[in-house]
Amino acid sequence: MDYLDVPVIDFSNAYSEKINERFKLAEEIGNVVTNIGFLVLSNHGVNLDVVKKAQQQVSAFFSLPTDKKKEFSPKSKSYYRGYFGMETGNLGATLGDKEALPDLREYFTLNRELGPACDDYYKTGLAQEIFIPNIWPDNTLPEFKIALLEYYREMEALAERIMRMFALSLGVDEFWFSSKIDKHMTNLVAANYPEQKNSYSPSQIRAGSHTDYGSLTILKAENKPGLQVKNKLGEWKDVPIVDNSFIVNLGDLMSYWTGGKWVSNIHRVINPKTKDSNSDRQSIVFFHQPNFDAVIETIPGLEKSSKYPTTTAYEHLMSKINKMNKTSKFNEIGE
């Protein structure tokens, strides 16, 4: 079946003890991601109270005055945590679009919260540069950290379950990806697209056309339009936002792992059609990334492609991040 629109998939069989039911779901998911790379998951098993609390705290943070939000910005461009203001990033540039303009969004990013007793894996070499402490607005919003970390843990579990379905769909052991994601370096990004009171260039949008960088993305968005994906016919299609569900899409590394069989699809967030007071938009995005040293190469048994050479999760991530952050506003961040 060719999917030209983003389908809603009932994920409940992912938790079934019957392998044939898990296989059936995996086959359905595999067909979707081969065609359009996006799906909406219902019956996903995530605690909805945790989702609600996270959304409330994200809304509270972005309601703060800009100067207050800036107090939680990183002091160095190499410290990728905390608050980043409007037009800081340029997602369109990650696909080589030299005409792309910076994104009309602000965001707050965090990664895994590690204690002093963490595994030695996180304490050596490159790991010390990657797993730096998060920035938290503790005194301003004391519940923010608790809510976002609970949400992060729920997303970790869901991402692991989705990766198991991916493995079954690809004809390998259900836990084939486990050793490649058990020490993942996933950033969770809370994004805000404010009401557009100012005039911008017609070609400047909320998030420029791009693909995601990691293995998969899990997005929880408000029930407001804007997210679009390009289908096989080159048409921009609205991604449906369904109550109590998540939007899931493939990242680039799944294309690398499958030799291009699966689609890390181009998507964007367009500007609202009106400038009314309800045109702001928020989302919480879990950009699932494998272990930083995971070698990403075509899964044995799948056809290889020279378009997807062997890389590592970290190498690919940084090649994209460095392009995204080449903006004047990003350069205003400290040394």
TrEMBL record:
InterPro entries xref list: DIOX_N (IPR026992), IPNS-like_FE2OG_OXY (IPR044861), IPNS-like_sf (IPR027443), Iron_ascorbate_oxido_reductase (IPR050231), Oxoglu/Fe-dep_dioxygenase_dom (IPR005123)
UniProt xrefs under Pfam families: 2OG-FeII_Oxy, DIOX_N
Cofactor(s) of this protein: Fe(2+)
Start and end residues of each Fe2OG dioxygenase domain: 183-290
GO biological process: ethylene biosynthetic process
Catalytic activity: 2-oxoglutarate + O2 + 2 H(+) = ethene + 3 CO2 + H2O; L-arginine + 2-oxoglutarate + O2 = guanidine + L-glutamate 5-semialdehyde + succinate + CO2
Family that this chain belongs to: Belongs to the iron/ascorbate-dependent oxidoreductase family.
Protein name from the UniProt record: 2-oxoglutarate-dependent ethylene/succinate-forming enzyme
